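Worked Example 4.2. Read the sequence first, then its structure tokens.
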Amino acid sequence: MGGGARELAGYLAGLGGWVAALAAAVLPQWRQSSYAGDAIITAVGLHEGLWMSCAAQSTGQVQCRLHDSLLSLDVHIQTSRALMVISLLLGFFGIIVSVVGMKCTKVGEEDPVTKSRIAVAGGVLFILSGLCTLAAVSLYATQVTYEFFRESTVPINARYEFGSALFVGWGAASLTMLGGSLLCCSCPAKERRGQQYYRQSQPSTAREPPVKMSSSPIRGEQCL
């Protein structure tokens, strides 16, 4: 795969991962009511996310309510919120920086070395964004798993399990880090060395050899 195609594939993967991370942050299905156990309750399905909690009835009616207070939320929800916001900001800046550094754009094409370094910087931003998304989703999933398996008087069918937004978040983190890794490969060391060697091997045209003056007499003087 050529350098331009690799950069384009990395950019599209990073952009798709950022959009998926945005969808995962907005969706309220970070955890949902479990249907395990003998007595299955299907009349109402409960969903909770980072920003709101919803109740879906069997008739198709859905009622959602935003979380009332930020400080009253659990620590893992507050931490996941902060990590997702940081992830979206890093991914947004990564999208802008990567466009400037890609070879298929005409911005700064007179300096290919600096342009490649800008693309690498965009790839690093994508990787950091994916790591923040992965940390947020994994932290929330760990808390859901702990609350599901701990000893409690709550029946199993009244507990919570993984929601669809967690899987969207894991996929978004994978795509974003993959795209960032491809962008980071856009500035190989061989290319930089070849450009430096080419610049050093070019002859200098600043100084021209002095013109030798002819020692023979002028024709007019010979006629005289």
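Now turn to a second chain, presented in exactly the same format:
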Amino acid sequence: MRTLGLSLGLALLCLLRVEAEDPGAVGLDKSKVAGKWYIVALASDTEGYLQRKDKLKMAMATIAVLGEGDLKVSFAIPTSEGCKKSEAIYKPTGIPGEYYSSERGNKTVRVVDTDGKTYAVIFASRVKDGRTLHMLRLYSRTREVTPKITALFKKLVKEKSFTDEMIRILPSQEECSLDEA
């Protein structure tokens, strides 16, 4: 679950990097990207994800912009052991739209598609035990996305060579939130 949380945060970090390099490319605005996001869908080829994907629920992330383009990402991830909260700092790699974190494993994330304000599709990869693991995530400002955005996510899943069996549209949950005291 810690890996999932860090990967989710890295993906959000990419949003700000794209804006910093070329604001016109995707129309991002840091004031719109910073703040609360819901992780509403996932697709991955990793064994651990495939074994537990039917038990996963919607997670949350909050992004804060720090100096020098770094991002602080806070997570709330529901698990069988309860609500797991964590924070991580992500740094730009020097490649537009890409961020990296070495906390709890080396992870790289990049923005695949976004409208810059309501949704983002993020591709994350990391190396573990000599294998490269991949995950595609759909982030939304709201707990629900339109059928058009869901269809776009499923199209991008196929383009990344994931199968329908690797997709999980995450059910909403109320018990794990970053809003809690």
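Notes for the reader: The beta strands are 35-44, 59-65, 71-79, 82-92, 98-101, 107-114, 119-128, 131-140, 167-169. The first strand starts at residue 35 and ends at 44.
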